Amino acid sequence: MDHKIPAPCRRERIMAAARAVFARCGFDKARLDDIAAAASVAKGTVYWHFRDKATLFCCVAEDMVSRDLAATLHASSQSLSAVQCLNSLLEVFLKRLVSVHEESGSLVFELWSSAGTSVPGIGEFLLQAHKRWRDAIKRILEDGRNRGEFSARLDLDATASLIMATLTGTIVNLRFGGLDERSRLDNIRQRLLLAVQAW
Amino acid sequence: MDHKIPAPCRRERIMAAARAVFARCGFDKARLDDIAAAASVAKGTVYWHFRDKATLFCCVAEDMVSRDLAATLHASSQSLSAVQCLNSLLEVFLKRLVSVHEESGSLVFELWSSAGTSVPGIGEFLLQAHKRWRDAIKRILEDGRNRGEFSARLDLDATASLIMATLTGTIVNLRFGGLDERSRLDNIRQRLLLAVQAW
Amino acid sequence: MDHKIPAPCRRERIMAAARAVFARCGFDKARLDDIAAAASVAKGTVYWHFRDKATLFCCVAEDMVSRDLAATLHASSQSLSAVQCLNSLLEVFLKRLVSVHEESGSLVFELWSSAGTSVPGIGEFLLQAHKRWRDAIKRILEDGRNRGEFSARLDLDATASLIMATLTGTIVNLRFGGLDERSRLDNIRQRLLLAVQAW
Amino acid sequence: MDHKIPAPCRRERIMAAARAVFARCGFDKARLDDIAAAASVAKGTVYWHFRDKATLFCCVAEDMVSRDLAATLHASSQSLSAVQCLNSLLEVFLKRLVSVHEESGSLVFELWSSAGTSVPGIGEFLLQAHKRWRDAIKRILEDGRNRGEFSARLDLDATASLIMATLTGTIVNLRFGGLDERSRLDNIRQRLLLAVQAW
DNA sequence: AATGAATGAGCATTCATTCAT
DNA sequence: AATGAATGAATGCTCATTCAT
Fold first, then answer.
1. Closest-CA residue to D87 (of D196, D198, D173)
2. Mean pLDDT over each residue of chain D, to the nearest integer
3. How far is residue B53's CA from residue B121's CA, in Å, rounded to a whole number?
4. What average pLDDT is seen over chain A?
5. What is the C-alpha separation between A140 and B116, in angstroms, rounded?
6. Which of A13-22, B123-132, B173-182, C76-85 has the least mean pLDDT?
7. Rounded distance, CA B187 to CA B85, Å?
8. Interface contact A95, partner B, CB < 8 A
9. Closest alpha carbon to C63 in C23, C120, C8, C4
10. Residue C115 three-state SS
C-alpha cells in the first residue's frame, strides 16, 4: 500500500505505536490490531519483530526507562556541587514527567500494575529500574556528604529512598491530585533540597 | 448444595473474594468464575448483587478506601496536639500498608492503572479519595499552625500535597524498592514530622 | 407493596403483560423478568401460574386466536345471505388486524417463526387454528353454493384456501408493504367478493 | 487441519451453512458454533468475514431475496404478452417456494419475526424487498393495461398489492394449511390470472 | 399463593498467536 | 520481511428455572 515506509524503521514505528496504545489503553486492553494499525503495519509484522505482546511491552518499558534515566543523569552530571547536582536531577525528573513524555505518566501505572500478573519479568525489571534511580541519587548524596555539603550523619540509603518515594508519589499526585500540581513542582524540589540539607 | 452458607452475608463474601482475586490478578485478568468460586457462590449470584465486573471492582475499591480512611482518621482523632495527631495518622497509614491489608497494596496499583481505561468512574473516584486524604492532612496542619505548633508561614496545600506524595511513593517503594523498606517506615515518619516542623 | 392488586386477576394480568412483551420483543428476546415486571408480579408468580415460558406463550396465542375467531364468527353469523356473511367475516377479520389488537400483528409473526423451533406444540396449534378459520370460510361458501349465491362449480376447498391466503398475506402487506395498506382494506374485501362470485 | 477446503470459497461456505442453520433453528436459537461447524470452519473465521450474527443473517437474507427476485424476473422477461409474463412470474415464484429453496420457506418466517426485534435493519430490508417485488408486478400490470390485455380501469397499485398478498399468504398456507397445498399452486395461479383480467 | 435470591448452563464475541503465501 | 486470513481458547454476561421462605 504505502510504499513510503522504509523497512529499517519498522521496528521503531512499532515501538512508538505500542507506547502510545499501551499508554492509552493499558496492557490488557491494548489490542495487537490497534498497535499494528497505528504503526501502519500488518499484524504478522509485529510478531516478526517481537516474540509476543508481553515482550513488546517490556521493550517499550525498557526503552522508556533508559531514556528517562539517561536524560536525568546527563543533566545532573553537568553540575559541580552535589547540591546543584541533586537539584538538576530533581528538576529534570519532574520536568520530564509533565513535558517530554506525557505518555510516560500512564505507562508507569501500567508497569506497576502489570508487575506480577500480566507480564512476567516486569517485576524484576521494575526492581532493577528502581535500584538504578536510587543508586544514582545515593551516589550524589554520598558525594555531597564527602564534600561536607550534607551532614556527616546523613543516612544515605534512607534518604535516597525517601527522595525516591517523594518523586514517585509526585507522579501519582500529578494524576490523581486534582489540583494542578504542575505549578508546585519547583516548590517540591526546593523543599526536598532543604530537607536533605537539614537531615 | 452447601447449606452452610448463611444467605445474608452473600454480598460481603463476594466482595471479600473479589478483593482477593482483584489483588492477585488485577482487574482485567480476574475472572468472574474465580471470584464466584472463591465466594462459594454461583456466577449468577455475583450478577444479582453487582451490575457487572466494573461495578464490583468499584464497590471493592470504595469499601477499601473508606475503611482505610476511617481507621486512619479515627486514630489521629484520639490525639491532642497536632504533631501527635499527624504522627498517628502517618503511623496508621504506614502500618496498614504492610499489615492490615496486604491486599490493599496490590489493589492500589490496579486502581491507578484502571483509571481512565478499564473501569469508567474509577478516575473520578480516585480524585475524590485523594482529596479526602489530603484534606484530612491539611486540617491537621491548619490546626497545628493555629496552635503555634507549626510555622505561621506553613503553606498548607503544598505541605499536604508533599506529605501525600511521600506516603503514596512509599507504597511504591515497598513494592519495587527491593530493600525491605518496612523496617524504615518509622524513620520515614520521623523525618516527615521533622521536615514539617522545619518548613 | 401494592395491596391494590386483587389476587384472582393475577393470571389475566400476566397474560396481558406477556402478550405485550411477546409482541414487542418476540418469543426468544422476551424476558420473563420483563413480563413479570409488566404484570407487577414477582417472577416466581409467573411460574406458579404457567409451567414455563413456552406454555405461557401458547396460552397467550390460544387466547388471542380464540378471541379473534369468536369475534369474526359472531359477526358473520348475524347475516342472512352467504355473501353478506362472507363480507362480514372479511370485514371483521381485516378490521381486527388494524384496530382491536395491534399487538396481534406482531404476535402472528412470532407464532409462525416459533413453530417448529422455539416452542414445541405451536406448529400443531397453528395447523388447528388455520383449519378452524378455513373451515369457517368453507362453510359459508358451501352455504352460498347451496343457496345459489355462488356458482355450482365453486371449488370449496380451493377457494377457501385462496381466501385464507389473501387474508394472511394482507397481514404481511400491512407490516412490510410500505404503503399504507389500511386504506385499501375495503377495496380488498370487495375484490375478493367479486372474485368469489365469478369463480 | 483439513487442507481440503479451498480458501477462496470460505465466505460462501459460511453463508450456505448459515442459511441452513438459520432456516432450521431460527435466528435466536441458531448458534454460531453450529454455523461454523457446518461450514467446517473455526468460529473466529465467521467473525473475520462477518461483523456479527445479525450481519451474517442480513447477508444471507439479502442473498436469498436477490436470487429469488432475479430468477423470477428473468423468467417473466422471456415472455411477450403481459399475461404470459405475469403467468411466468407467478409460476416461478410458486415453484421456487416448494422446490428450489425449501430453506427459503423457513427463512422468510424468520425474517418477518426478526424485523424490529432481533436484527436491526431487517425491517428496512424487508420494506425494500417487498417494494421490489410489488414494483415488478406493477410494471407487468401496467404493461398489460397499455397493451389492452387488462382493463383500462385496472388499479395498478391495489392489484399489485393484492397479488403480493395472495402469493405471500400462499407461503403461509403451504406451511400451516395442513392440506397439501402444493398440488393447488397451479389452480391458484390460474385463478389469479382470471381475477386480474376481470378487474 | 407469592416472593425474589440463587443457580448454572449457554452463548456471542474477542483477540493473541500461527502459518501459508 | 511482510502479509492477513484463519484459529480456537477464553470469558463476561444473560436468563429460564428452581426453591427456601
1. D196
2. 88
3. 13
4. 88
5. 37
6. B173-182
7. 17
8. no
9. C23
10. strand
Count of other CB atoms within 10 angstroms of residue B149: 19
**Could you give the CA distance from residue B161 to residue B155 in angstroms, rounded to a whole number?**
10
Residues of C 33-62 whose CB lies less than 7 Å from any atom of strand E = 41-45, 47-49
Q: Taking CB atoms and an 8 Å limit, are C172 and D168 in contact across chains?
A: yes
C100 — pLDDT class (breaks 50, 70, 90): very low
Q: What is the CA C24 to C1' F6 distance in angstroms?
A: 39
3-state secondary structure of C119: strand
Separation between Cα atoms, residue B134 and residue B84, nearest integer Å: 17
Taking Cα atoms as reference points, which of D188, D198, D199, D179 lies closest to residue D87? Answer: D188
DSSP state at residue A117: T
Measured between CB atoms, does C195 come within 8 Å of chain D? Answer: yes
Domain residue ranges in chain D: 1-50, 53-198
Q: Lowest-confidence range among A5-9, B70-74, C25-29?
A: A5-9
Instruction: Say whether residue C117 is in contact with chain D using an 8 A CB cutoff.
Output: yes
Report the candidate in D71, D77, D98 with the shortest Cα–Cα distance to residue D184. Answer: D98
Name the closest residue (CA) to the C1' of nucleotide E4. Answer: C42
Taken as a whole, chain C contains a residue count of 199
pLDDT tops 80 at residue B143:
yes
pLDDT tens, C105-123? 788 999 999 987 878 889 9
- Spatial separation of the C-alpha atoms in residues D195 and D32, rounded to whole Å: 46
Query: For residue D5, what pLDDT is reported?
Result: 60
Give the burial class of A8: count Cβ atoms within 10 A of its Cβ; 0-12 exposed, 13-18 middle, 19 or more buried.
Answer: exposed
CATH of segment(s) A1-50: 1.10.10.60
Per-residue pLDDT tens digits for B23-65? 999 999 999 999 999 999 999 999 999 999 999 999 999 999 8
- Interface subset of D 50-79, CB within 8 angstroms of C: none
C168 touches chain D (CB under 8 A): yes
Task: Tell if D52 CB is < 7 Å from nucleic strand E.
Answer: yes
Fold of the domain spanning C54-198: Tetracycline Repressor; domain 2 (1.10.357)
Are the beta carbons of C46 and C60 closer than 8 angstroms? no
CATH class of the domain whose range is D53-198: mainly alpha
pLDDT tens-place string over residues A15-30? 999 999 999 999 999 9
Q: Could you give the CA distance from residue A41 to residue A10 in angstroms, rounded to a whole number?
A: 8
User: Cβ of C143: how many Cβ atoms within 10 Å?
Assistant: 15
pTM of this prediction?
0.91
| Residue A167, CA atoms < 13 Å, CB-side half-sphere | 25
Q: pLDDT per residue over A89-145, tens digit each?
A: 988 888 776 654 567 678 899 999 998 787 888 999 999 999 999 999 999 999 999
Q: Do the Cβ atoms of B184 and A161 come within 8 Å?
A: yes
B58-198 domain in CATH 3.40.50.2300? no
CA gap B112, C26 in Å, rounded: 44
Give pLDDT, residue B63. 94
User: At B157, which amino acid appears?
Assistant: D
Spatial separation of the C-alpha atoms in residues C165 and C186, rounded to whole Å: 17
pLDDT band of B8, cuts 50, 70, 90: low
Cα separation, B184 vs B52, whole angstroms: 40
